[in-house]
């Protein structure tokens, strides 16, 4: 039996990301960016700090979070920081560790996967604490894709008083049986049952070999890690979390988002155009390529100006 087309595409993506890891190590930081680090739960976390001209930590900060398996030097993240600086806003773009010490670049599929989505929530909170220690009294959380969903859960479950606004760029409906089977074909039910059995037996940290996960084929992952992405539905429950967010929130969606084409319909019931708003960018894909990221950031900056 031949591999599915989606499976072959995912394998190709994995190889491309591995090559990008090598190239990224050779590239300098973007102009005006300084890498900062902090320790958290035995790991070194890193982030790119971009200060707007004449501004200090006390003037506020935008905390930027990347998407699934991504990093803080992706084009969408670097351009976001650049546009924010042009508008007088300082920003801190973090790398979610995904269980890797001082992680840079795309996540390598070949590692043993132990990371959990709740780790990202904890690391967002850790960086908010770092900003607090540096005198920042008000923080805007701006996150893309899977990071936006993780930011949504953070805003509800672990709110910090310093975080007073949330911008969600291209949030998603999350990983599910349907998305798994579209990407990998069969195997979801068997892997789900196996992972649930291990967790129920107190063996959630046991490795499952040869499982398909995220964009990675035939990897080793703990039962808890696999279930975090495919069995923990908190990270895609807009109906549960958007009504519970207590800070002004802007969702930004593209009309040609190839990953989450139905996102506007999914969130529409929870919009009130006051606390939770939606802006749609015509012609924008999931990564707001070309000039679409500028338009998305203009929408975000307009929102931030009105909510000050």
Description:
With 308 residues, the chain is an alpha/beta fold. The protein has a single domain, classed as Alpha/Beta hydrolase fold, catalytic domain (Rossmann fold). 37% of the residues lie in helices and 21% in strands. The chain has ten helices and ten strands. It has helices spanning 5-24, 75-86, 117-133, 146-157, 177-184, 188-200, 223-230, 238-241, 263-267, 292-307; strands at residues 33-40, 43-50, 61-65, 91-94, 139-144, 163-169, 207-213, 216-222, 249-254, 276-281. The strands form two sheets. Strands 1-2-4-3-5-6-9-10 form an eight-stranded mixed β-sheet, with helices on both faces. Strands 7-8 form a two-stranded antiparallel ribbon. Strand 3 (61-65), helix 2 and strand 4 form a beta-alpha-beta unit.
